[in-house]
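dumping this here before i forget
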Amino acid sequence: MGNTNLTTYTYIKQKLMQKINESDFEDNRLPSEVKLAKELEISLATLREALIMLALEGYITKRHGSGNFVHPSAFNPRDRIDLGITFEDSFRHQGKEPGMEIVSIKESLAGSSYAEMFIIDERDIIASCEVIYKADDMPSIYTIQNIPKKILKRPFELGCGNENFYNFLKELNVTHSLNEYKSVALPDKISKIFELPHGTPILYCSQMYYNIKDKPVLHNEHYFHPNRFGIKVVQNWDVSAI
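structure:
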């Protein structure tokens, strides 16, 4: 995305979303880019980079010679996971008060499974952090984060599941993650936290983060409460934006 970093883009995205939700655009056409950049107090180059990303994500459609057209249907759903970067962002978008509780932080030998996962020695140490994400003080997501201790640049708890996560990923030179979603039986430990029967089918996500050299550096496991967190995303079918 050119020279615009993630924090700047997230800020611009939120400002655009706020403006769109508070405004009524004729034929859903956004103001000119010059006017929009002035209203948002950002450079025209930065705005254009953000608009390109919004088009690729399906929030707007760019038409050469016609302008930028916004899609209110893409911005409005309250259970859209991709309207926020973190779970806290998603809860806020749903009108819920986010919360977080660190359950435990521990260290253990990598063993064969983590050694294969992170391409490290079985005797290397894995730091693990277990977190409960809450919406209106109700446990909604249970997350287990695992990382080779030798690549940590500060105590794990300072980047574990909170708003410092952006900086935590930046320190690890993370560029992308691969997320695998599937249905699993709710483990006994988490069933007590969610107050659901053991074995209840729930949505589970295995998330591996990779750095700029495409090496795995962080693995997250997410267990989602079936009644407190849903996933809805926009799929972009505007081939002209690709």
